[in-house]
Amino acid sequence: MNIADLRKSYERDALDETAADADPLRQFQRWLQQALDAQLPEPNAMTVATVGEDGRPSSRIVLIKGYDARGIVWYTNYHSRKGRELAARPFAALQFHWVELERVVRIEGRVERTSDEESDAYYASRPLDSRIGAWASPQSEVISSRAVLVANAAQISARHLLNPPRPPHWGGYRLVPDRWEFWQGRKSRLHDRLRYRPEGESQPDRWIKERLAP
Prior knowledge:
Layout: H1 24-37, E1 45-51, E2 57-63, E3 66-68, E4 71-77, H2 81-88, E5 91-98, E6 103-113, H3 116-125, H4 128-136, H5 146-160, E7 170-184, E8 192-200, E9 203-211
Helix pairs in contact: 4-5
């Protein structure tokens, strides 16, 4: 099969300005809940895109671990490539793609670290193997073989037993949105795209909702 010949007609749903919530966070919550209710595979998976000091973009899949009026939260190694890029340029773009619902959500904004208390609480809630893994993996660094990770994990397990503390290089990030876009696939490639942007600095909690051409 020629990959250029692959086609799909999106006809599952529609996204209308009058039906979409005035608050993008509530609209996101509605769609995320629908993805959860549909029992989609990993509905919490999102792409995080960052930019390095050299201007080159990079992206990877992570899992959302929380959201509220303050922003979207995930956890990772601060020394990883994304951590280094966020330290230099603290802005990112997120994307959720719920294929079965023919939906995409894009979110852009400034990124900040979560508090130590938030990172400690989430780290303590993780399975033991995941807590050990946060110590064992020098994320994004070159290693000679998988044996390095296994040896590191064994050393951490022997040192801390069942209670490894949170590594100082591991914790949370929170993206504070200043752009949201909701995409619903439609027939004939005339997709629905609704963008939310702040009404202004004096009204940061009020949003302008506008339709974009697909």
